[in-house]
């Protein structure tokens, strides 16, 4: 049995070597994409209207979104609201705020919940309307929304003293992708 | 119109008494009509009450629907929405899916907004102090429940299910129970209102039914009385007419009998040769002539009255000078007046306009008045004839008034309304053996009315009477009249 297995492995390796095209051979590669224009729009950090916090630094925001800060100054427990994995808004938060990818974030929360350092895992909402309604209903909630999805039921928090409309605001999300 | 044209009240305090007499007389003569008017008034008054009752009942019914029934329906909706608020909150407890929890929270808030609006509307409609107090309590309890509900929702969404349940059991359930009791109380209030209004509608309907039955009975009673009164009135009128006709026949027979007796006696004397001398024969001839003329005049008067009985006698109306009328009257009554030894004192306003009329008819009318003045002038032997212009009482413009006065026996005030009735003879003149047919004034009145004028009388017992014929002036004369009349002058004729 051991000989037969060794033989099969050798045959397979040989087939891979001979089947591989030479480096200079023409290969069928997908055509390059046309010149792409990437449009973005601000991603607002929103909290409940009763929340007294108006301004957060990016580092404070990182601690909040990583669950390292559990309560607001008024004593209310912080409830994180996230979009589902793969959504552009979530990607922005992961990249610009948490500075992690999905698996790192997942591991971070698993570890934190296991050790007791993090009390509650983030709430996952499917739509921006759901995020808005959640933040409206929960006094300690914090989430993120495209600026166009924000209305007066929630409050926008300054990030590093910048509002989403301000020049120098750091959080932007891919808006649309157009091609020509 | 006819009765108003028959006589005038004197221009003195006596006028008021005369008016009262007239009203009393009308009441006696037209009791059936008055009864019918009374029935109509009673039906109208009760009808107004019944209509008002029906309107009240309608308003109550509308109130029952608009306020009580509508209010009960709204309270039912409020109760449902309040339960919906709670149900959606509790449903959020049953899942860990944040998306579903948000959806339930949204449903709960939608329902609570409807309840809040409903309570605000109830508060706005509440008028009674008790209702206002209840509305305020309901508002307060609902707000209290909502604050707890918000906390419960927040806990559920945060994932603190245990905390949410504890909060709901300790605060949510009791506060919602208070809201439920408040809503039940509001419902009871609407129930009470509806019951009270329904009782009002029932009472109003019962009252209307009683009134309708009452008015039907009253109408039946009064109508029966009115019919009875009408029948009785007709019967009395027929009896009165028959009596008057009998008296008329007796009177005419008596009037004819006197000249007939004279004629018969004179004829017998001539036939028996008692009268042979030429002078005596001439005297008898004049007697026969006078008596036959008197009989002819009497028969003519009766025939003329018969011809005017249906009021269809036609006269040829033409413009007449008043002087022409007066002249005709004087010539036709000269013999009568001179024979009776009366003096006529005439006052005639100069420049009088022409009047419309039939000369023969007017002369006949005035002749009857002069004849009465002679008949009832007693011992004064005086007749006044006044012709003047005056304002027409029943039409714009002016009229010519020809008045015949005497200073005779006059009339009692109660007699005046009857003297223009055909065949009427005052008991007083019957007792005084003053003969007549009772047709003179009736005939004069008919003539005056047919000519477009009227006859009026002013009389006082034992002082005398003045009968006035009012004649319309010719239209063009009426236009030309300026109202400035020259002072009257008087003349005396014997």
What does this 3D model show about the protein?
The complex is a heterodimer of chains A (180) and B (494). Chain A is an alpha/beta fold and 180 residues long. Chain A has helices spanning 2-19, 58-65, 88-98, 102-115, 128-137; strands at 36-48, 55-56, 79-83, 123-125, 141-146, 154-159, 172-179. Residues 7-37 of chain A have low confidence and may be disordered. With 494 residues, chain B is an alpha+beta fold. Chain B has 2 domains: 44-216, Aspartate receptor, ligand-binding domain (Four Helix Bundle (Hemerythrin (Met), subunit A), Up-down Bundle); 318-493, Histidine kinase-like ATPase, C-terminal domain (Heat Shock Protein 90). Chain B has helices at 14-29, 31-92, 98-125, 129-158, 161-271, 278-308, 322-340, 359-376, 427-431, 440-450, 475-480, and strands at residues 318-320, 343-348, 355-357, 382-391, 398-406, 454-460, 464-472, 489-493. In chain B, strands 6-7-5-4-2-8 form a 6-stranded mixed beta sheet. A two-stranded antiparallel ribbon of chain B has the order 1-3. In chain B, a hairpin with a 3-residue loop joins strand 6 and strand 7 (464-472). Chain B is rod-shaped. Mean pLDDT of chain B is 81; it is low at 1-12 and 482-494. The A-B interface holds A 77, 79, 81, 120, 123-127, 130, 133-134, 137-141 and B 98-99, 102, 105-106, 150, 153-154, 157-159.
Helices and strands, with pairings:
The complex is a heterodimer of chains A (180) and B (494).
Chain A: H1 2-19, E1 36-48, E2 55-56, H2 58-65, E3 79-83, H3 88-98, H4 102-115, E4 123-125, H5 128-137, E5 141-146, E6 154-159, E7 172-179
Parallel strand pairs in A: 2-6, 3-4, 3-5
Antiparallel strand pairs in A: 1-5, 1-6, 1-7
Chain B: H1 14-29, H2 31-92, H3 98-125, H4 129-158, H5 161-271, H6 278-308, E1 318-320, H7 322-340, E2 343-348, E3 355-357, H8 359-376, E4 382-391, E5 398-406, H9 427-431, H10 440-450, E6 454-460, E7 464-472, H11 475-480, E8 489-493
Parallel strand pairs in B: 2-4
Antiparallel strand pairs in B: 1-3, 2-8, 4-5, 5-7, 6-7
């Amino acid at each position: 049995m051991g000989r037969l297995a060794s033989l099969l492995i050798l045959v397979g390796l040989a087939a891979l070597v001979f089947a591989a095209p030479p480096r200079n051979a023409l290969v069928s590669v997908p055509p390059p994409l046309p010149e792409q224009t990437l449009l973005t729009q601000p991603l607002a950090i929103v909290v409940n209207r009763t929340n007294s916090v108006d301004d957060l630094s990016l580092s404070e925001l990182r601690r909040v979104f990583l669950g390292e800060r559990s309560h607001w100054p008024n004593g209310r427990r912080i409830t994180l609201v996230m979009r589902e994995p793969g959504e552009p808004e979530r990607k922005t938060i992961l990249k610009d705020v948490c500075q992690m990818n999905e698996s790192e974030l997942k591991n971070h929360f698993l570890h934190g919940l296991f050790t007791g350092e993090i009390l509650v895992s983030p709430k996952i909402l499917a739509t921006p309307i759901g995020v808005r309604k959640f933040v409206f209903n929960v006094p300690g909630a914090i989430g993120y929304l495209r600026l166009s999805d924000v209305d007066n039921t929630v409050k926008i928090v300054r990030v590093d003293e910048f509002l989403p409309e301000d020049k120098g605001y750091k959080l932007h999300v891919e808006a649309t992708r157009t091609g020509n | 119109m006819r009765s108003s044209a028959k006589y005038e009240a004197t221009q003195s305090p006596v006028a008021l008494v005369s008016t009262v007499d007239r009203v009393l007389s009308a009441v006696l003569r037209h009791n059936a009509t008055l009864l019918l008017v009374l029935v109509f008034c009673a039906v109208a008054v009760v009808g107004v009450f019944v209509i008002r009752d029906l309107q009240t009942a309608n308003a109550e019914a509308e109130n029952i629907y608009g306020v009580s029934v509508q209010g009960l329906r709204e309270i039912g909706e409020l109760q449902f929405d309040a339960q919906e608020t709670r149900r959606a909150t509790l449903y959020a407890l049953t899942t860990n899916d944040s998306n579903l929890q948000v959806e339930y929270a949204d449903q709960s808030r939608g329902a609570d907004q409807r309840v809040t609006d409903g309570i605000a509307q109830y508060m706005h409609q509440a008028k009674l102090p008790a209702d206002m107090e209840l509305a305020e309590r309901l508002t307060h309890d609902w707000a209290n429940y909502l604050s707890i509900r918000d906390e419960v929702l927040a806990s559920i969404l945060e994932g603190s299910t245990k905390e949410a349940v504890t909060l709901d059991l300790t605060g949510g359930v009791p506060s919602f129970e208070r809201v439920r009791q408040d809503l039940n109380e509001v419902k009871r209030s609407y129930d009470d209102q509806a019951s009270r209004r329904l009782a009002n509608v029932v009472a109003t309907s019962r009252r209307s039914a009683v009134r309708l039955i009452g008015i039907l009975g009253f109408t039946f009673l009064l109508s029966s009385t009115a019919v009875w009164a009408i029948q009785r009135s007709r019967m009395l009128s027929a009896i009165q007419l028959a009596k008057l006709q009998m008296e008329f026949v007796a009177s005419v027979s008596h009037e004819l009998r006197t000249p007939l007796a004279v004629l018969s006696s004179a004829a017998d004397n001539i036939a028996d040769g008692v009268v042979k001398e030429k002078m005596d024969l001439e005297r008898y001839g004049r007697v026969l002539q006078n008596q036959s003329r008197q009989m002819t005049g009497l028969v003519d008067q009766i025939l003329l009255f018969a011809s005017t009985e249906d009021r269809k006698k036609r006269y040829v109306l033409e413009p007449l000078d008043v002087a022409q009328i007066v002249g005709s009257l004087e010539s036709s009554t000269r013999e009568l007046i001179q024979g009776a030894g009366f003096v006529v004192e005439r006052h005639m306003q100069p420049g009088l306009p022409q009047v419309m009329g039939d000369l023969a008819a007017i002369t006949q009318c005035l002749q009857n008045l002069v004849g009465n003045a002679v008949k009832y002038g007693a011992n004064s032997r005086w007749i006044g004839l006044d012709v003047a212009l005056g304002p027409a009482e029943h039409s714009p413009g002016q009229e010519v008034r020809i008045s015949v006065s005497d200073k005779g026996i006059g009339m009692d005030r109660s007699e005046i309304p009857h003297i223009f009735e055909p065949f009427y003879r005052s008991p007083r003149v019957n007792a005084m053996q003053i003969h007549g047919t009772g047709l003179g004034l009736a005939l004069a009145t008919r003539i005056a009315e047919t000519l477009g004028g009227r006859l009026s009388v002013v009389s006082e017992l034992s002082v005398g009477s003045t009968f006035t014929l009012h004649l319309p002036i010719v239209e063009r004369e009426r236009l030309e009249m300026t109202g400035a009349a020259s002072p009257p002058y008087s003349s005396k004729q014997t």
